[in-house]
Amino acid sequence: MLTLHRAALVLPDPTAPSVADGAVLVHGELIAALGRHDELAAAHPRARLRDWGDALLTPGLRNPYGHWLLESAYHPDPREELGDAPVPGGLLGEADEARCGASARRGLQRMLGSGVTAVAGPFERAAVRTAVARSGLAALPGPAGPPGAEGPLDPLAVLPLAAAVHGRLAVGGRADFAVFAPAGAAGAGASGAGASDGARGPAPRPAGCLATVLAGRLVYRRR
Description:
three-stranded parallel beta sheet
């Protein structure tokens, strides 16, 4: 089935021209087309439509802090009533692989809620490697040097959009992308100078993640 994801502003690449009232056409795991919504809708009238309104659609994000977040920090189970924030050092010295794997699965799920579609290692624990592989997120090699840089689940908390995205949206590429609510003036700019066809300039600063699509599947949607 074809699915057409429409958004007020589509950024195939934060350094490339943006598309106002744009859309991404997904077929299975891949991007079949991208461009203006009216043109794609006319060409594919039977495609299922997901209309994200005034949102900003971009490539999914890369979290560069995967080693610390998944192998050092602990992600509490909601039944523990400890909140959703990672507990620094909560897995240090932990020998229970099942507990480490469960923590990693919760951490990965919470990353999806931030628009993350790729996470950087290295991942040394077998249970964590399994959790990453089963999550569907792209597993990336970690930086050179000792692992362990600390950082948040949401890369946009510390990085600009251009530095946080992973790859670009392209026809034939895997359909990994995120949908964000526009923030303040960026939302108003979705129909202004920064959002016309072929417009260049700094990427708008998005607000919270509305949805994450991984290999063509809607894996997160904000309630």
